[in-house]
């Protein structure tokens, strides 16, 4: 190997090491926590599919997003059961039924909190749920997931935790910063459900109210 070749290999290794270090230092996205509020229990609202008003979705895309919301409902139950004093609100259950086309507003949330004898409500919105096209080792199009959540105390409407997860999986060749995450994923392409599961665990896990008890 020539000196120039050795230099190029060394430079590439340095780039990977630096990129890995930067990726590991990457902080949480849009998360705020106020641990000072006393919570009796949390009413968990059904996930609401939502897109920007400019977006126009086809019937198939709307169905995909709705199906993604149902998948996320199941993942939230898996994550939250046993971790906090929670009450899961079914779609259309009592006060959870949509009023005048507006879901999960503060007035409606207060009704739900009273119904379930809680003083906090968790609202989650799923705005992107696109599955990969291809297999775990060769995807033509990667999975993409975007959701936001908000936990607030219903007495004064104060937000005590909130967060956003937004990821379209990238290959290491496209972005060296993804190397540590790719290694944790076994260097495979995830399905949308797998990516969503990671997002739920990562984002909600940053909220102290969802710590195990």
What does this structure look like?
It is a single chain. With 213 residues, the chain is α/β, with parallel strands linked by helices. The chain has a single domain, classed as ABC-type transport auxiliary lipoprotein component (Rossmann fold, 3-Layer(aba) Sandwich). The protein contains five helices and nine strands; from the N terminus they run αβββαβαβββββαα. It has helices at residues 3-24, 59-80, 106-115, 179-184, 192-204, and strands spanning 32-33, 42-44, 48-49, 86-88, 120-130, 133-135, 138-141, 144-153, 158-168. A hairpin with a 2-residue loop joins strand 6 and strand 7 (138-141). It starts with a helix and ends in a 9-residue tail after the last helix.
CATH homology superfamily: ABC-type transport auxiliary lipoprotein component
Distance between the termini: 58 Å
Gross morphology? globular
Q: Helix tally?
A: 5
Please identify the structural class as seen in this structure: alpha/beta
Poorly predicted runs: 3-28, 96-104
Instruction: Give the strand content.
Output: 15-25%
The residue fraction in helices comes out at 25-40%
Q: Class, according to the CATH hierarchy? A: Alpha Beta
CATH topology-level name: Rossmann fold
- Number of structural units classed as domains: 1
What is the average of the pLDDT values? Answer: 76
Overall number of strands: 9
Query: What order do the helices and strands follow?
Result: HEEEHEHEEEEEHH
Strand count, sense and barrel status of the largest sheet are: 7 strands, mixed
CATH architecture: 3-Layer(aba) Sandwich
Estimated radius of gyration:
20 Å
């Amino acid at each position: 190997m020539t000196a120039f070749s050795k230099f190029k290999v060394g430079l590439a290794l340095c780039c990977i090491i630096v990129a890995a270090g930067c990726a590991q230092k990457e902080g949480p996205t849009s998360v705020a926590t106020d641990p000072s509020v006393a919570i009796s229990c949390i009413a968990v609202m059904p996930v609401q599919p939502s897109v920007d008003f400019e977006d126009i979705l086809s019937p198939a895309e709307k169905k995909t997003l709705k199906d993604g919301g149902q998948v996320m409902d199941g993942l939230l139950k898996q994550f939250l059961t046993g971790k906090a004093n929670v009450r899961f609100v079914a779609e259309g259950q009592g006060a959870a039924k949509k009023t005048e086309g507006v879901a999960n507003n503060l007035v409606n949330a207060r009704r739900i909190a009273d119904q379930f004898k809680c003083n906090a409500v968790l609202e989650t919105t799923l705005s992107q749920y696109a599955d990969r096209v291809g297999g775990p080792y060769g995807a033509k199009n990667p999975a993409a997931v975007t959701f936001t959540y908000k936990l607030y105390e219903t007495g004064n409407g104060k937000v005590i935790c909130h967060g956003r997860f937004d990821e379209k999986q990238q290959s290491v060749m496209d972005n060296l910063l993804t190397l540590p995450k790719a290694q944790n994923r076994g260097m495979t392409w995830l399905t949308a459900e797998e990516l969503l599961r990671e997002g739920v665990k990562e984002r909600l896990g940053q909220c102290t109210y969802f710590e195990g008890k």
